[in-house]
Amino acid sequence: MKNVYLILLLFIFSFANAEMVEVEGVYRNTGDIAPNETCRLAKERAKLKALERVTGQVISSEEIEKCSEIDGKSNCERNQFFLSSFNGDITEIEEIDKQLDTEQLNSGELIFVCKIKIRAKVVAIEQEKDPNFDFNVKLNNYNFRDGDNLVIDIDVSQNMYLTIFQFLPYEDKNYQVYKLFPLGGEKNFIQVDTLKLPKKNKYEIYFPENVRKKSIDEYLFFIGSKKNINWLNKYSKFEDLKKQFLKSKSIVKSKYKQYTIIK
């Protein structure tokens, strides 16, 4: 009977933290993507809006524009959605309206415009609320060339366990997410102080092979926790890291940094 009662409480708790929202995503195809991608990207924008409305975590328009100029809008929308989704999870989604039309620009050019309205159930990821538990991250640069070295400065407000992952969207092998720190016997228990990484060797930036673009974006994902978590050294996709992230109840703070590599 106690087990049934506990399951019922968990069921009620999970739905108490879920919020149903209706949002609209609009995408204008200015010619840099295939026309049939227009509505898919409109839906991605709607999903991002749903997450932002519930979690309060908003990605700046400047950040999106910078990413779009480098990686193309299609890749940028997808990457930004997955990065933002670490603050919340969309458990249900329903498309309630869809309109695909054309619009004439001042230049006379006709473009496709897709508007999609969705109803989504968003669950904000519950992290331990401790305003005194925080950390700040600064990179030595945000624009790198092949062969440059990356240096990371980290300030922590309390002792914590820190793990850093590198997200490589253009990696064409079996894995796109790699643990950057700790590795090779490094200790990830950080005491209140300023930490400079790497402690040994170098974090060398390289431009991925078989990429025709002149510049790309990559990401660093930082996770701070009060308890040590046995993360894997690599994950096939960013979604796989998120699944493990959602299971880890000890997580109290996460951040990401975006940087550009120029060929």
What does this structure look like?
By secondary structure, the protein is α+β, with helices and mostly antiparallel strands. It folds into 2 domains: 2-124, no CATH class; 135-262, Macroglobulin (MG2) domain (Immunoglobulin-like), CATH 2.60.40. The chain contains 5 helices and 15 strands. The chain has helices at 2-16, 38-55, 61-71, 73-84, 238-247; strands at residues 18-29, 88-104, 110-124, 135-139, 143-145, 149-150, 152-156, 160-167, 177-181, 189-190, 194-197, 203-204, 215-225, 234-235, 251-262. The chain starts with a helix and ends with a strand. The model is unreliable at 1-16 (pLDDT under 50).
So, the CATH homologous superfamily of the largest domain?
A: Macroglobulin (MG2) domain
Structural class: alpha+beta
Low-confidence stretches: 1-16
Helix content: 25-40%
SSE inventory with pairings:
Blueprint: H1 2-16, E1 18-29, H2 38-55, H3 61-71, H4 73-84, E2 88-104, E3 110-124, E4 135-139, E5 143-145, E6 149-150, E7 152-156, E8 160-167, E9 177-181, E10 189-190, E11 194-197, E12 203-204, E13 215-225, E14 234-235, H5 238-247, E15 251-262
Parallel strand pairs: 5-15
Antiparallel strand pairs: 1-3, 2-3, 4-7, 6-12, 7-11, 8-9, 8-10, 8-13, 9-14, 13-15
Helix pairs in contact: 2-4, 3-4
TL;DR of this structure?
Helix content is 25%, strand content 40%. With 263 residues, the protein is α+β, with helices and mostly antiparallel strands.
